[in-house]
Every structure is written in structure tokens, then in C-alpha cells.
Specification:
With 462 residues, the chain is an alpha+beta fold. The chain has three domains: 194 residues, no CATH class; 123 residues; 126 residues, no CATH class. The protein is built from 19 helices and 14 strands. The radius of gyration is 26 Å and the shape is globular.
Amino acid sequence: MARDLLNRYNIPRRIAGDTSGPSTGWPRRGRGMETNVARTSSISQPISSSPADLAITNGIARDFWENELELSIDGALRRLEDPKELRTWIGSRTGRQLDVLCRALDLTDATRIKDKRAALTRCDGRLTPFYLSDLFARRKGRFAVADLAASLLPRDVVELCRGKDDETFDTKALLYALLHANPEHFKTLFHLDKIHKSGFARMALKQKVRQPDTPFEKFLTRKQAEQILKHFDRQKRDQRESQLKNIIRHHHHRLVFIRRPEREQYIMREGRIHHGHRVEWIILDFADNVRRVNISSDSNEVPLQIANALASAYFGKDVEYDNECQITYEKQIHNLLDALKAGTCEGLKLVDLAPQCSAVHGVNLGLDHDDPDVMQRAIAALERDYGSLTAHIDRIVKLKVGYFGTRIDVKFEKLDDGPDEYIVRYMDHRLNASVRKRFEDFMRDTHGIPILSTEKRFARRP
């Protein structure tokens, strides 16, 4: 396995984890080790590359970088043809990044920063994968990197990358360490990073069904999932292929990552138009023994149909998911709004309020300020002259609350069936998964309000 990685990625033996010689690098985790954050399932396929591709890309598997991680590496490889580029790159590395690189390349004799830079300049092509990992680092969330690294890397390596305080890390240093431990970790990170940047529709099973004896994680092997997706694609008849990219266990949930062509699109390359499809990433987050699923996607219908197909195969009968509905009553919302306006709402501050057709002679108002005290005084002054600005909940166009320094959009969705029943929703795509859960738990436990994402999914009837 180690020699395989060496050949595929142009990574020296000690980076690839080869134990055939002495190494001062950090140990790799066992294959079967469970972590409290994420464990890649056994579905990951080996990364291959043709000899021609390996030669063109200086020994780096083009498929790994360009297809699995969706990076364009041609420009970076062209820049590396200039010897000055690598020296400049080494010169811009931080102390923590230099420490990780030297440990990965077994440059233990270099102790001073100056010596470390000089030693690294002699490594030449061995640094190419780390150079490319800087491309991968762009737009990757700090939380996702630190979260995964904490679950996969030895503690002393994580501490080596820690910043001046306990809350910050050198993100690139952590990425170099993850690459050294196993390049496959980049694929896991590429997928997990998406859950922190996507809104998820909260869905629940319509039907009551008996729980199968086989746990879902044992049922949903790669082979089984791919068969279900192939059957779905044949029935869909839209000439598009659903690619199963990963299945990850994450906080007792089962995350299924699917890449699928969506709408037609074209790009221009070398003066010519190339036709294809826009890529859609579908993330299915199964929980509660598959009785619930959270769906992240760009399209509306297909992701829900795929979730239904996977659940139906597991339960052995046709089942469907529907948008989750958790009711909050009008009185509860008024209590929350009154506390927000008065500045007495525990854990929340009102930072933006826009009522439509307000009491101020029918004018649409928009009150927005980061200082909640300013908001409180402005609202109090207006309400003394014109009455409550929030008397009609269904006329509130915009409401934002401050929660630990984060502005969160909150919406109230009126239910047709009940005169005083609402669903309280918030825009969850701006929060990472950890903050989302904390906020939802806080709203339920502190204010008695169940809050759901603004994301919803629907499927047309056949």
C-alpha cells in the first residue's frame, strides 16, 4: 500500500507511510479506528493514473487532483517549471508549516528556520504534492480542517499546528500533516467541508415501518448503494449518471455523497465551446435509523427521489420522505419577539427587523444595526407613537438575530391548517454543522421553539 501511494503521488516513502526504513514522522492511524468526528468507510477506491498522466504531471495522479478534488493543476505545474517559484513558496511558509514539512520529509537535522528553508529547497519534486495542497486549501473552512485533523492525527501533531490561542490553527500546516498521513484524507475533507457550507432540508418518513434487523451502515455498502443508484438512473431515463463518491460515518449519522450532472451548460477552452452539464453535489444525511434524512442539493426533485429509493431498498417496501413539520404557536413567537425588542431575550439580540405595511402609516420599515441597544431604542420610540411593529407575525419580511456574534435570518411560516400555528425556520447554510446543532438545541431548550432550516424538498407525483 505504501509503495503504491509512493508511485501514484510522487511522495517519498516516509510521507507515504512506508515503514521499510527509519522515520521520525508521526504514526498513521489503524484502518478500523473509530473517531468521534468522522471515519471514512471502506468504500473508497484506489486512485489510479496512467503512466502518461503520471509523466505529464510529474508523478502526481491527475485524476486524484482534477476529478476527485475538482482542482485544475495545469497552471500550478507550469509555475513550478520556474525554479524560482518553489524557492518563493518555501520562503513564504510559516514556522509551523516548515515544522510539519520537515517532519514529513524527515529533515530532522534542520532546527533553525533558515536551515529548514535551505533543506527544503533541496527536496525539489518531493514538495510538489504539498505545493498543490495550497490550491486545495482555498475556500476550505478552518472548522472542517481542524475538526477532521483532530480526529485523524496524533495529538502532538495537532498541537504543533496550533496558533497562539487554543481556538486557532495553522490550516495549511494541518493540511500538510493530513497529506503526509494519507492523501485519501483530502477526499474525506473535500466532502465533509461541503456539509458546513450547505443548507439541509429536514425530512421525515411519511410511513410507519418496521425497523429491519440489519443496521443501515451494514446494509449500505458501496456495491449496494451503486446498484440502487444505477436502477434509479435507468428508471429516470434522463441520460445522467449518479456517481457515488463517498459514504462517511459522522456523529452517528450516515452521510452519502453523490455527484450528478444537473442542467446543461458549456464552457470555453482554447477558443472552443465544450458542452456538458453543471455538477450537482447531493448530500444525504441519514439519521434516527433512517427515519429522518437531511438533504443538501441544488435541485429539488431528484435528491429526494434518490433518498426515497435508498430508504425503500433498506426497509424492503416503498417509503417516502416529507418535509418535517414542527409546530410553534403564535403566543410563543410573540413572547420571543417581545423579549427581543426589549433586549431581555436570553442568548439572542435583535439586529435586523423589517415589517411590511407597518403601523407607521403603512410604510415598509427596515431597522438594521449591529448594536442591539440602538435597535431597542429605535423600536421603542416607534412603538410609542405607532403601536407594535410585530403585531402581525405574517407581515414580518425580515428578522435577524445575533447569536454569539453571528447574524442569523429567522422566518415564520404560517400553516394553513391552524389559525395560530407556525413553523419557525432559519437560513442554516451560513453556519457550520456544529453551530447549527448548538443553535437548534438552544432555541428548543431555552425558548421552547423547534427551529428548522428554510430548505425544503418536493417531488412531483408520478
